[in-house]
Design goal:
single chain, about 200 residues, alpha/beta, Rossmann fold, seven-stranded mixed sheet, 7 helices, 7 strands
Length: about 200
């Protein structure tokens, strides 16, 4: 989808995603000492704001002006400061080795574009820092719930783990994400990869 498509999507609803931070970010980052964090697909800011509230110095990037405006207002209401950057991740290059945590959450791109973005994300991790990548797993298409229907933008944990040069993979696995629907609880299948740059 193009920026104008996402702008339209965000403008149509008061809240496109949950107001709560990603359960996987909370689980993987809660024990990390605060430092500099990069949220590479920040959307409405839920994850960036959660990190900022816990003492992280956060840079958050998205290509939707509508989403970033919403994120700025939410951060102001919560009394936290975040550096918001309007940019397309296919063009934007983060400073190298600058972040103690790099989060790439639910960025669904074709393989060649995904490798480009993940390579830049890996390069942005400081010595001793962590990269967390989570997204819709390929298996979700046939065995899970929701998410994109185009297999070209889905991936496996193994694919992501192989696209992080210079990092040591600590965890690469499929994880279940429960979703409440009118018919009851269903499960989405996500791919989660956590990696670390040696100190």
């Amino acid at each position: 989808m193009k920026p104008e498509d996402w702008n339209r999507k965000y403008a149509e609803r008061e809240l496109v995603w949950s107001a709560e931070p990603s359960r996987f970010l909370v689980a993987e980052a809660s024990d990390l000492p605060p430092g500099r964090a990069l949220d590479r697909t920040c959307g409405e800011g839920r994850n960036a704001i959660w990190l900022a509230e816990r003492g992280w110095e956060v840079t958050a990037v998205d290509f939707s002006e509508v989403a970033l405006a919403r994120a700025r207002r939410k951060a102001a209401r919560r009394g936290v400061s975040v550096e918001w950057i309007l940019a397309d991740l296919l063009d934007w290059v983060p400073p190298p080795a600058a972040f103690d945590l790099v989060a790439v959450l639910y960025l669904q791109l074709p393989a060649e574009e995904r490798r480009l973005v993940l390579g830049r994300a890996a390069a942005a991790v400081a010595p001793g820092g962590t990269l967390l990548a989570v997204g819709h797993d390929l298996l979700n298409l046939t065995e899970g719930y929701g998410g994109p229907k185009d297999p070209a933008v889905l991936f496996t944990p193994e694919e992501v783990a192989a696209e992080l040069p210079g990092l040591e993979v600590e965890r690469a696995e499929r994880v279940l994400r429960p979703i409440e629907t009118e018919e009851g609880e269903v499960q989405a299948i996500d791919a989660l990869v956590r990696a670390r740059r040696p100190a």
